[in-house]
């Protein structure tokens, strides 16, 4: 499938985790031990909010169909950008073609979205799900992926008012349409979405065997656990990272997000709640 990373906290030079971590997202693009595919070389994306963002600021996005490990522009941009909230995604295409409009993260107004997973039997379900998108939003669907349709379906269903409810309703719509087409397990995936101030992450699949997802332990606790690790001084006390798989091998730095869980990340920390649980 894919691998992704999301950061939230005080403005941080993006290369600190995009490039410099032991098992960085760029390293995972070439070798992801926990991924469904080891190599994620079918393009990538980097999206970020500026340090002076307001509640209506659009994030900037950079997409390329080159492998992340081989793109000098990604290195230049992430070394130059300091951001309080950014997304990075490396893609392993599950069917739709390799083109920039199919690279995550996707953007609408001040919202960003990315996904690791797939809608099963996408060619058969695509028409029914696409026509469920609000007509005013349909022109914003520029690519051919199931992920982008899910994002716009969630926007249709109220993402801007209640992200957890809207993502849940969008996935339930996928399951309803899938079951009508005799697809046993229509939805698989982890999702990240943000409005620039708060981030939400989701882990859920119809089969109950979802792709991996982790988030970091709070930084003050990590400093107590590893007082000699100088790298921790780079991060603010409120720094939070959500990842498809851990960025290092230190025990306790990353906590696995349980199945069927939604995680809210904001200034108060992490909050888990059941998501589409049976």
CATH superfamily: Aminohydrolase, N-terminal nucleophile (Ntn) domain
Structural shape = globular
Question: Which class best fits the helix and strand makeup?
Answer: alpha+beta
The top-level CATH class is: Alpha Beta
Can you describe what's shown?
Residues 2-278 form the Glutamine amidotransferase type-2 domain. The chain contains 7 helices and 13 strands. It has 278 residues and is an alpha+beta fold. It has one domain (2-114, 186-274): Glutamine Phosphoribosylpyrophosphate, subunit 1, domain 1 (4-Layer Sandwich), CATH 3.60.20. It has a 7-stranded antiparallel beta sheet. β7 (187-194) and β8 form a beta hairpin. It is globular.
Summarize, please.
Pfam families: GATase_4. By secondary structure, the protein is of the alpha+beta class. The chain has seven helices and 13 strands.
Write the layout of secondary structure elements.
Layout: E1 2-13, H1 15-18, H2 25-30, E2 44-49, E3 60-64, H3 72-80, E4 82-91, E5 106-108, E6 111-119, H4 122-130, H5 146-156, H6 163-180, E7 187-194, E8 199-205, E9 214-216, H7 219-225, E10 240-243, E11 254-256, E12 261-266, E13 269-274
Antiparallel strand pairs: 1-4, 1-10, 2-3, 2-4, 5-6, 6-7, 7-8, 8-12, 9-10, 9-11, 12-13
Main attributes?
about 30% strand, Glutamine Phosphoribosylpyrophosphate, subunit 1, domain 1, about 280 residues, alpha+beta, single chain, 7 helices
């Amino acid at each position: 499938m894919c691998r992704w990373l999301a950061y939230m906290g005080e403005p941080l030079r993006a290369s600190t985790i995009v490039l410099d971590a032991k098992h960085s997202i760029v390293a995972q693009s070439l070798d992801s031990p926990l991924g469904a595919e080891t190599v994620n070389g079918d393009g990538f994306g980097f999206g970020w909010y500026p340090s002076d963002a307001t509640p209506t600021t659009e994030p900037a996005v950079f997409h390329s169909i080159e492998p992340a490990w081989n793109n000098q522009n990604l290195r230049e941009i992430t070394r130059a950008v300091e951001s309080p909230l950014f997304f990075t995604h490396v893609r392993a295409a599950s069917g739709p073609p390799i083109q920039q409009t199919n690279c995550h993260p996707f953007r609408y107004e001040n919202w960003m979205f990315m996904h690791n997973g797939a809608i099963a039997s996408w060619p058969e379900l695509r028409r029914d799900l696409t026509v469920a998108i609000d007509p005013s939003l349909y022109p914003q669907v520029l690519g051919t992926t199931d992920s982008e349709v899910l994002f716009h379906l969630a926007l249709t269903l109220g993402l801007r008012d209640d992200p957890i409810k809207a993502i849940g309703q969008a996935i339930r719509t996928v399951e309803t349409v899938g079951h009508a087409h005799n697809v046993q397990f229509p939805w698989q995936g982890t999702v990240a979405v943000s409005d620039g101030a708060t981030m939400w992450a989701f882990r859920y699949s119809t089969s109950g065997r979802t792709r991996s997802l982790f988030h970091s332990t709070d930084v003050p606790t990590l400093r107590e656990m590893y007082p000699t690790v100088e790298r921790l001084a780079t991060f603010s006390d409120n720094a939070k990272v959500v990842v498809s798989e851990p960025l290092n091998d230190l025990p306790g730095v990353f906590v696995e997000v349980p199945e069927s869980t939604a995680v809210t990340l904001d200034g108060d920390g992490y909050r888990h709640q059941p998501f589409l649980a049976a």
